[in-house]
Amino acid sequence: MDEEYDAIVLGTGLKECIISGLLSVDKYKVLHMDRNAYYGGESASLSMSQLWEKCGNGGSPPASLGANRDYNIDMVPKFIMANGQLVRVLIRTTVTRYLEFKAVDGSYVVNKGKVNKVPATDMEALRSSLMGVFEKRRARSFFIYVQEYEEKDPRTHKGLDLNTMTMAQVYAHFKLEPMTIEFIGHALALHRDDSYLDKPALETVKKVKLYHDSLVRYPDLRSPYIYPRYGLGELPQAFARLCAVYGGTYMLNKSDAEVVYDDNGKAVGVKSEGETAKCKFVVGDPSYFSNKYKKTGEVVRAVCILNHPIPNTDNAHSTQIILPQKQIGRRSDMYVFCCSYAHCVAPQGKWIAFVSTTVETQNPEAELAPGLALLGPIEERFVQVTPIYEPHEDGKSDNCFISKGYDASTHFEDTVNDVIDLYQRITGKVLDLSSEDPMVANTEV
Questions:
Q1: 295-324 residue pLDDT tens
Q2: Domain count for the chain
Q3: Where, if anywhere, are coiled coils annotated (predicted)?
């Protein structure tokens, strides 16, 4: 490893693979290393035997679960907004040629213990069982406003300044009731708690508009989400291929990879197996950087194997259910994510359901009870608690550009925002995602 690189990327999680792909496309000379023998890092998709071993269940998976090779179980389960940032990154980098997507069947929200379809348009608001007759009309007015809103066209603002008004004030303007506010804020805008209510309304209106635009992106789409066949582990592998096409070098099984610093504390390379590869800067997940990150929380996730669809979801092969914090007496939301054999992630007749939330107590597994109660009979269950880390600094002073951990949400918008921020910190450039139409060609709906 006597060559010198522009960047050495440590870890093959999705964020790191996207960054290495983007840098390679920008003609940076990239070396990508991982301590594991497989791609994906924390965001890998595992076989049943790998998951069984990781969770320490002992013995071997029972034959009733089906063939081991048919499982691709995501460690960080998330859906992709059909008109969102990740799709734009996929299009910008042409990574779509390596992937095949399938539409997600449904998006639901829990109200008073009942699972309800999430209304996202003016017409869906009129049909929703979540609201009474008069509230449906008020909600319809709000959705029409959001659908027509254009930030650069004052005529669509209807006299509302979303940069100065809080979201609570916008809700008050449309006279919306608490339950309507709850599903808009948590199931459409996908906020994880209610702190957004006191912030400028523009961000939330954009998020609701993104949900709507994703929902209408493809004909007959029943949710705003898409998902890759064979699991999310396909994403980091696709970006790894992209990096390699543009000259990037990959080295797996580097269990001893260690960042090397100069006398001024700046990263100048990575050492492994007695050799040091030099570089201008290092990018990676927090686990590769001692004392350069802080713990900001924990996520508890349950992976459940089912032999049936989740009840009350119209027999969906894939779905998201959001349990808003107030509905379950918490400070943060809970998420249910489900996919199945229809997505080539499980054997025929099997569904994989995940329940995740931000840890709030000393008994994380018990916190998942409201989400687990929605699943019906469970064949096998695996529970993991994962810490969330964030870097202390932006990386400009020590040449160490560190990604954040993955939150409990079941969508990729916050994940991609971290990638965009990383890219800007590294290159000094804003990642331009506006030049391409975000249409994924290989998508079945």
A1: 999 999 999 999 999 999 999 999 999 999
A2: 3
A3: none
